[in-house]
Request: fold
Amino acid sequence: MNKVEIFQECHNILGEGVTWSESTNTLFWLDIPMPSRLHICSFNNHQYITYDMPEMITAMAERSDNNLLIASHYGLNNFNLIENKFEQILKLETDKPQNRCNDGAADFLGNFWIGTMQNNIAPDGSAIDITQNSGSLYCIDKDFKIKNHESNIGISNTFAWSPDNNKFYFCDTLTGLINSYDYDFINKKILNKKQFAKFDRGYPDGSTVDSEGFLWNCRWGGSCVVRFDPNGNVDRVIDLPVPNVTSCTFGGNDLKTLFITTARYGMSNEELQKAPHSGNLFAIQTDIQGKPDFKFAN
Reply:
């Protein structure tokens, strides 16, 4: 295993949602707090650009023809990369104005899974205490039909599937547990919720699954990414020089580069002096091939 290196000095406040486009050799990630930004790095022409967003964006999936499906504070949106146009598609949880979207991803059928939570970020970027488990787990199909699969969630994170797509992984960060479910994709149901993994460094944040069926989980407050085997046992730990590690995905031509977002949100000046690279995008060359990120099928 090689050493973790800084891939992009982007100094995100709360980097998240890193996504690899296999069809365009492009890496996408985002910075959540306002002024929220979409970051794009093209491997074809080595171009790095950012787009300012009109509201907090929290997760994404690629669509066809230069369009992205982007989850934001209030719901789902389309962003056209050519026209730089952000358009709302649907609102989520209009009956819960205190909530916002958080992590999410597309599955192999092109459904978009998204979790919500009580909004913990004020317009000025300051923190808001989470006082209730008001989040839910939703699946949204290509016709934008919404199905609620679980409620009473504190912080929705980790949206990943086994290579055969029969297992779904999800966590409520506040519990410290990563759970697995049987995914009945024919009937669009998740069943048999079980505790999959627990680790003693930090809290579980975003995850990805590799081609061998191992789950790579980022640890908020844990300064690492941990790889769990399909039984939930720790296989290896990748240390990072920053405390808050948020999301990861495999990319590059051979899908063997793990890209990792981090955050400096909530850190004091003293903490930032000790970990000045907080908020940058990291990468590590691995000996394991990942799985491609799926597109939203619409």
Summary: The longest strand covers residues 189-198. Residues 200 and 264 are 21 Å apart (CA to CA). The helical segments are 269-274. The mean pLDDT is 96.
